[in-house]
Design goal:
A four-stranded mixed β-sheet has the order 3-2-5-6, with helices on one face. Helix 1 runs parallel beside helix 16 and helix 21 crosses helix 22. It contains 22 helices and eight strands. By secondary structure, it is α+β, with helices and mostly antiparallel strands. The protein folds into three domains: 165 residues, no CATH class; 153 residues, no CATH class; 71 residues, Homeodomain-like (Arc Repressor Mutant, subunit A, Orthogonal Bundle).
């Protein structure tokens, strides 16, 4: 049953200017430069240079968007009683924001390299069709992940081309002779064998390495070196030399071809520059190629001229003035938004700098304090989502390296003495323990947990395993060396 009723609701709706302000805040320096250039192209009232006061007093009071600063600011629409979980993340993006990578070409791609070598072979017409289809199934790492029987079925159904397993296998053997060595392999074992067989197998060490890969691959991958020594009846010194040769091989031959041409390369432009002089830290925004903006005097003079001759103005003049006012409002707002972005970023980064002062002076990870978005929000008086937007995709150049702002945020835990320490400090100790371990008998997660407990950090084995994985370190069995 349908009913009609009156209901009052308090809603917040963002204006297009507010949405643009949010986007300006979260983009990094390199995208800001592109955004400003686009605005300069779209708005003729904007010019590069220092901003000048060009408004008449009456225009500034009645039509300038400067009054909007009294109506809203960045914080007015970000204050909520309840904070949803997504706003605590440093990787949040607007759902309508389109992010694209700009493709570029450098040299020959991996597949172009393979097709070039295919053209140098004397193949029949049928072999060429099979070879091109096989090359199309080779992935970026250089592996053929599809079964030959499935390729035969694909050729029959999609191309109407009959080819037997033996014919496809014969073409694959030809492709496996291509450079880089190991291309066209169907498994890691086959990939390494293809590479080792191109070496001088008359060399005893190379021959031993080939036998290990061919007959004892499982023991090699699981680092059961004692079993290999026993079954091959060799000493550890010979095994160590053979393993050295195996470790020189490339498990992803396609990844090195053409210097990874065609893959996107990200260039990092720091948003902040931190310099240290005699113990004092100096922070500045990296303006780079970002131009300063001002209002065009030509268009401001046009408004002054209209007001001076308002009585004799034609309809066309009024229409032109309306257009100029719109562009003038948009330009003034854009300049104010850029200024507010800079102020918000400096305010946030200065708070991070003050919070982690000991770390920024020495660059020692163990001096880093536990810090979350809420800590900086409380210091700056900004909303957590604002801090998240500032931190996201931004970098700082320091006297000891370039770091993403997210790097300085970490959770904390208490030691036995009640002192609160950053999890990054614990990871540093964990990394040092693994670096200094006996590689013949690597430390297990249980042993690492016991060591940290002895140092006053009460951490369970599963937490050690989590931190170890975050550091990109394998389990003890896979860290074993001779």
């Amino acid at each position: 049953m349908l009913k009609q009723r009156l209901q009052q609701k308090l809603l917040q709706k963002l204006s297009p200017q507010q949405i643009q302000m949010i986007k300006l805040l979260e983009i990094p320096a390199i995208q800001l430069e592109q955004r400003i250039k686009k605005e300069l192209e779209d708005n003729p009232v904007l010019e590069e240079g220092n901003e000048e006061a060009v408004y008449e007093e009456g225009v500034a009071e009645n039509e300038s968007p400067g009054n909007d600063q009294d109506e809203f600011s960045l914080e007015d629409y970000m204050q909520d009683d309840e904070i949803p979980s997504y706003r605590l993340s440093t990787g949040n993006y607007s759902s309508d924001e389109k992010r694209e990578e700009i493709p570029f070409s450098v040299g020959n791609t991996f597949r172009e390299l393979l097709k070039t070598q295919l053209g140098l072979r004397n193949l029949t017409e049928k072999q060429e069709v099979i070879a091109e289809y096989v090359l199309g199934n080779i992935d970026d790492d250089g592996y053929l992940r599809r079964e030959l029987e499935a390729i035969a079925d694909d050729l029959a159904f999609s191309v109407g081309f009959e080819a037997s397993y033996e014919e496809i296998h014969e073409v694959l053997m030809i492709i496996q002779e291509f450079d880089p060595a190991g291309v066209g392999a169907r498994s890691l074992q086959e990939c390494l064998l293809l590479q080792i067989e191109r070496k001088n197998t008359d060399d005893p060490i190379i021959g031993l390495a080939r036998r290990i890969l061919k007959n004892h691959f499982d023991e090699f991958t699981n680092k059961h070196y004692d079993k290999i020594v026993q079954r091959l009846d060799i000493d550890e010194s010979l095994l160590k030399q053979a393993l050295t040769e195996i470790l020189k091989l490339n498990p992803k031959p396609g990844g090195a071809a053409g210097d990874s041409a065609g893959k996107s390369i990200e260039h990092i432009v720091p948003d902040f520059i931190l310099e240290e002089h005699e113990g004092e830290l100096q922070l500045s925004l990296n303006s780079g190629n970002v131009p300063e903006l001002k209002i065009s005097k030509t268009y401001s003079d046009m408004i002054e001229s209209y007001h001076a001759n308002k009585a004799s103005a034609s309809r066309e003049d009024k229409n032109a003035l309306t257009f100029v006012k719109q562009k003038l409002d948009s330009a003034k707002w854009f300049i104010d938004a850029i200024r507010q972005r800079q102020n918000t970023m400096l305010l946030t980064m200065n708070a991070i700098l003050e919070y982690q002062r000991n770390y920024f002076i020495e660059g020692d990870e163990t001096r880093m304090r536990p810090m979350i978005l809420k800590d900086i929000a409380e210091r700056t008086g900004l909303d957590i989502s604002t801090i998240s937007r500032v931190v996201n995709s931004k970098y700082i150049q320091t006297h000891f390296g370039i770091f993403p702002l997210k790097y300085f945020f970490s959770e904390g835990m208490q030691t036995d003495s009640g002192e609160e320490v950053s999890t990054r400090e614990i990871k540093k100790i964990l990394h040092d323990c693994i670096d200094g371990e006996d590689k013949r008998r690597p430390l297990t997660d249980d042993r690492l947990s016991a060591i940290l407990n002895e140092k006053g950090y009460q951490i369970a084995r599963r937490t050690v395993a989590k931190y170890r994985e975050q550091l990109g370190l394998p389990v003890a069995r896979l860290r074993k060396e001779l």
